[in-house]
Amino acid sequence: MASGEGGIVATNDRELYERALIYCHLHRSGAMEVLTNPVYKQLDFQLLGWKWRAHPLAVAIAQVSLETLAYRVEHYAANRDELASAIAGVPGIELAHNYPKAKGSELYGGLRFLYEPEALGGLAAADFCRAVQAEGVPMSGGGSRGLEHLRAIYTKDLPGLWGKGHAGPANIPLPRYQQGDFPVTEGLAGRVLSMVGWIEAAEGVIEQVALAIRKVVEQHKALL
Predict the structure, then answer these.
(1) DSSP code for 172
(2) What is the pLDDT of residues 100-157, one digit of tens each?
């Protein structure tokens, strides 16, 4: 649920809740009375000194969005499931799997597909996307951003970035991650494709998308 860089955290874990408070509730009246963790209760009213919480306008937008959230989640998930069924068994591509008890509801970021080039003779993901786009489907290879553990802040010394005495983010010494530390995650890079999903899909559009994907897969040898 997008709300102008604002957001809502829901948790049934008291520890996570209180950690969110000490990061976000700088100068918030009553914050100290809410804390139960004996370590956190030793902080003063400034807590950790941050103010990572949404501004009033973002909260207002989020509150209005909550009124339609259930509708949007339900319809988006239903359309996602319809597309998943329509391309079930198609070699080389499938919608990303969800946890068994979770609904597929990528309201922010769009649908994610897992692509297997080996199943299509080694056809590159970029070439597959271009062929699908030529059929009118706005699929792209942007479903996976840069790998988090290989960002410069985790792999390089950056003197002066964190301030005097700071070894890294939140005073934690950098672990110096490197290529190969997370082989499963790294193996997915470049194989995650994406496209927009639908809350209210136009009549026949899901069938058209599935047909386009099937056509490219069936004719993939012509693209090699």
Answers:
(1) P
(2) 777 666 777 789 999 999 999 999 999 999 999 999 999 998 666 678 888 877 777 6
Q: Which two tokens stand for residue 69?
A: 């959230």
Nearest-Å Rg of the Cα atoms of the chain is: 23
Helix (H, G, I), strand (E, B) or coil at 53: coil
**Separation CA 55–CA 121 (nearest Å):** 51
17-38 pLDDT, tens digit each: 998 888 888 777 788 899 999 8
What are the CA-CA distances from residue 2 to residues 20, 64, 66 (Å)?
19, 11, 10
For 25-147, where are the alpha helices, taking DSSP H only? Answer: 31-34, 56-86, 125-134
Closest CA to 206 of 84, 89, 109: 84
Secondary structure of residue 216 in the 3-state scheme:
helix
47, 41 contact by CB (below 8 A): no
Show the domains of the chain with their CATH numbers: 1-54 (no CATH), 55-144+190-223 (3.90.1150.10)
CA distance 128 to 119: 12
DSSP state of 89: T
**pTM (whole model) above 0.70:** yes
